[in-house]
Design goal:
The chain contains two helices and no strands. By secondary structure, it is mostly helical. 0% of the residues are buried. The longest helix is centred in the middle third of the chain and has 120 residues.
Length: 133
């Protein structure tokens, strides 16, 4: 610029304007190149961030699939356990019913035997009473 300024005294006015315009254009070009480089750097960072986010999304999708699979398996196991518990409760109720039925039958037999013996004793006592008269 100093050289241009010193030459500027020797150059006509239109040449000086052209030189200043040329310098202004070079300055704008340099600014545009710096901005382009900055935008490329930012684009690279954004591309890297996008890549990272896609990988994270893929990992999360895989984890979700694994969790859903585990959930389905645990639900199936829970249903199997519930089914087994219900089957055991049904069997337990059947055993209780059979035991109650047998206990009632045994109690009826005891009562019938007692009634039979009591009736027999009454018959013996009646026969003895009629014989004594």
């Amino acid at each position: 610029q100093q050289q241009l300024a010193s030459k500027g005294a020797d150059l006509p006015l239109s040449s000086m304007a052209a030189t200043a315009s040329n310098m202004d254009l070079e300055s704008q070009l340099a600014d545009a190149q710096v901005e382009a480089l900055s935008l490329k750097t930012e684009q690279a960072k954004l591309h890297e961030r996008l890549k990272h986010l896609k990988q994270r999304c893929d990992r999360l999708s895989e984890e979700k699939l694994d969790l859903n699979t585990s959930l389905v398996l645990s639900e199936e196991e829970r249903l199997d356990v519930s089914r087994a518990l219900i089957d055991m409760q049904i069997e337990n109720n059947q055993v209780k019913d059979r035991a109650e039925t047998k206990a009632q039958a045994d109690a009826n037999m005891v009562v019938e035997e007692w009634e039979r013996r009591t009736y027999a004793q009454v018959q013996v006592c009646s026969a003895d009473t009629t014989t004594q008269r």
